[in-house]
Structure formats: C-alpha cells, structure tokens
Amino acid sequence: MSVPMPYPAPVAVSPGEQSSTTGPFTVSGYVPAWAAAPQNPTGGPPNAFGPVAGFTPVVDLDTGGVIAIQVNASTPAAERADVGGTVAGIRAAAEHDARLPLVLPIPVAAVSAGSAGLAPLHEAMRVAGRRPREIILTIEGDLDPADRSRLLAGVDGLRAAGYLIAFGGAGVRHVPLDVLADASPYVILISPELVERAPKDARRAAVAEALVTVAKGVAAHILAPGVQDEVQLAAVRAWGVRLATGPLLAPGDWRPADGRVHVPVPATETSPNLAHLLGPRVQEFLMPAVTLPITATSEDVVQAFGNEASITSVILVDEYQRPQSMVDRSRFLLYMAGAYGHALHAKKPAHRIADSARLVPKTTPAIAAMQVAGQDAKRVYDDLVVVDEVGRCLGTVHVSDLIRHVANRPVPK
Asked: What is the reported pLDDT for 262?
C-alpha cells in the first residue's frame, strides 16, 4: 500500500477527465470545480484573506491542559467556496508562534467544490511550515443534499493529504447524522447555542446527549464550545464531553503565549459505565501529537516544549508522518540541563538522545495498551503513539488517562 506524500501541490487537469490527478487528493469519481481557480494564494498582507477575531484554547477538562488552539477566523457564507478565512487563521497563528495543533474553520462549499479551490490553503501551510496532521479543519455551514457526495469526496481528499476533519454546529446546522457517520470526522463540535440553552432545557440536553452518543459511535472526539459558566460546564461534563472552549476557561483576549487556563474542579465525579472487559479502544483517549521532522535539532525540541507546559512528548516523524522516535519531556530536559548539555546537544539532531516510539494501533483496547506501557519498567509513564493502518502517527495517549479509566471502572459482581 502506498502512503501519500504530505505536501504535494494540487495540479488541475482538463475538465474532460473523469478523475483528478492531484496526488493525495485523487478521489475516484470526483470531479473538482475547475472554475474555482485560486486567487492571490501567496501575496498580500498577512491577513489579506479575512479578519481573525482571536484565539481560543481547546481545554482537556480532565487534565486542565491546552491541547489545541481554535483560531476564530471569519469565514464567508457557506455557499461560497472561499478558504480566505482559513488562510488568514494559519497566517495569524504563525504570527503569534502558535505551535500547538490548530482548529480552523472552512466553509462546507469550499470542501464540496473540489481540490482546485483549496490551493491557497496548501500554499499557506507550506509558507507557515505547518504539517496537515497538526490542523483540524472544521467544516461550517448547512449542507445542500445535492452536494452530499461532493462533500464526502472533498473530505476524503483532505484526509488523504493528512488534515484532520471536524464538523461544527452539530445539533443546529443542517448536516444529517448519517453524513457524520460516512465522513468519520476526528472531532464533532456541538453548536454553541445548544451548549448555552441545554442546561436549562431538558429537550435540548437530550439532543446534546444524542450527539455525544453519535460521536462515540463513529469514534470521534466531541467538543463543547462557548462554555460561559459553571452550570454549563457541569452539564457538559455530565454528557461525557472531555474537550471544551469558552469564556469560563480563558478570557476573550487569550493568546497562545498566555498558556494557562482556568478549569473549575467538578463538585462530583461520575464513574463511566463500561461493559467491555478490555475497555474502549485507545482512539477514545487520543490526543493530538506535537510532531517534528526526524531532522529536527534538540534546540527545536526545546522550543516546542517551551511553548506549552502541558506538552509531555514530541514525536519525531519521517516524511510520511510515520513515527521514528519519541522525545520524553522529563528525560530530555534533564539531558539539556546537565553539565554541558546545551553545548553538546543543542545544534545536533534530537533523535540522538530520543527513545524509540512505543506504537499501538488505533484499535488497541485500553487494557492491552496498558500492558504495552508496562513492558519497560523505566518508561511506564511515557506516552503511547497511536498509528493508523499504514503506520502514520494519529496522536498520543497518556498512560495516566488509561490508569484513570481503569481505576474508575465499576467492579464486576
């Protein structure tokens, strides 16, 4: 099985052909929108494609850590195949040196229109030095039923290039649930309006709980945006949502350099009701990985760790996003802080002092993953690296999350 290259530039072919020859964006039976030629993909000032309202940290409610940054870029109307807001978000993140994974909006029409109109997005990624695996593209807007097949083809093309896919406005936007099942998104975002009204409306709460069930069924994370107070936060936790954003967690003027967020401690904790002996699969505990190329120097790794205190590891990957080694935060900083550590290692490749990556397939049960973690007594708490069917890095799993899950499981009678 061949593995797609992460950065090929899309190349349009003649309209008469039945399929696109755009490298990883080739989708059988998919005819791109040839008229949607990119306009000014590289020129202009940094935010020439649209304003960026700010940044919002995506917070893991269990650990209190910031795992990604949502860029609040304005996007055109859903019927317009324009990625200007997405491009502006990438550039704004580069200006603020936001190195964590990014959550960026993209209009549903831009995904449905085909790969030709996405050229500015790929060019902005190249200029910013970002990898597709670090970007979560949130599809926004209502879906026209006639565009269903084109949307799914566009999602397949973006996923083949390495991007992570999300759907926004779930519960309010017109996106059928079976489309979510067919698209297999990485994240589903509950509509902020639903988060706001559900704690005081049992019917709305039922919709939110149904979305959580759907997300678990299609192996997607679910994110609750716009949490404003502790009542909403308690409701979100009760639904089983782990990821959230909102004014309660970080102020409106939050920037990537701020780092810290505030997560109120829950009054009570509920135990998960788990029926399977081996527990859920590790993909339910998956966190976005911070990756660097295998050629990265130790100085590059120091900079990555310095951007956010919650980063516990950096994965060194090859050109196909396959993990080659892992740099554990604690051991690496001890190397660098030792006698002559910076002088000896800073300018040299980081893989010299890295450890082998402990790989687990995405379908591995939680108990089996803990067994993998316990095979080396000196590295019990090192992050596990989750890979897909062809060995590409999907993210990492904290062993502490697996332990917490096992500790909270009900004792069988």
From this structure: 82
Residue 159's nearest CA partner among 383, 388, 397 is 388
Query: Which DSSP category does 383 fall into?
Result: P
The closest alpha carbon to 147, from 186, 108, 119, belongs to 108
Matching residue, tokens 């085909």: 114
Per the CB < 8 A criterion, the answer to whether 5 and 26 are in contact is: no
Which secondary-structure segment (H or E) carries 67?
strand 66-73
Ranges under pLDDT 50 in the chain: 1-50, 78, 268-276
Name the strand (E) or helix (H) holding 315: strand 313-317
Residues recorded for the chain = 413
pLDDT score at 5: 40
Question: Can you state the percent helix, strand and coil of the chain, rounding each to 5?
Answer: 35, 20, 45
Residue 168 pLDDT: 92
SS3 123: helix
Could you give the dihedral angle defined by the CA atoms of residues 25, 28, 31 and 32, in that order, rounded to the nearest 10 degrees?
A: -10
Give the sheet arrangement for strand 384-387, strand by strand.
359-361, 384-387, 393-397
As a whole number of angstroms, the distance between CA 46 and CA 405 comes to: 44
- Pull the structure tokens for residue 168: 């926004």
**Of all helices (H) and strands (E), which one includes residue 58?**
strand 52-60
Which pLDDT value is given to residue 35? Answer: 32
Residue 412: per-residue pLDDT: 52
Q: What is the DSSP string of 165-189?
A: EEEEEETTSS--HHHHHHH--SEEE
- Nearest CA among 406, 318, 412 for reference residue 370: 406
**Cα 180 from Cα 230, distance rounded (Å):** 29
pLDDT digits 0-9 by tens, 97-127: 888 899 999 999 999 988 888 999 999 999 9
Compute CA 222 distance to the chain's CA centroid, rounded to the nearest angstrom: 11
14: phi then psi, degrees, rounded to nearest 5: -65, 150
Label residue 35 left, alpha or beta by phi (over 0 means left) and psi (-120 to 50 means alpha). alpha
Taking CA atoms, 338 is separated from 63, 117, 312, 343, in Å, by: 29, 51, 19, 10
Q: What average pLDDT is seen over the chain?
A: 81
Number of other residues whose CB lies within 10 A of the CB of residue 179 = 18
Burial (CB < 10 A; 0-12, 13-18, 19+), residue 140, is: buried
pLDDT value for 215: 93
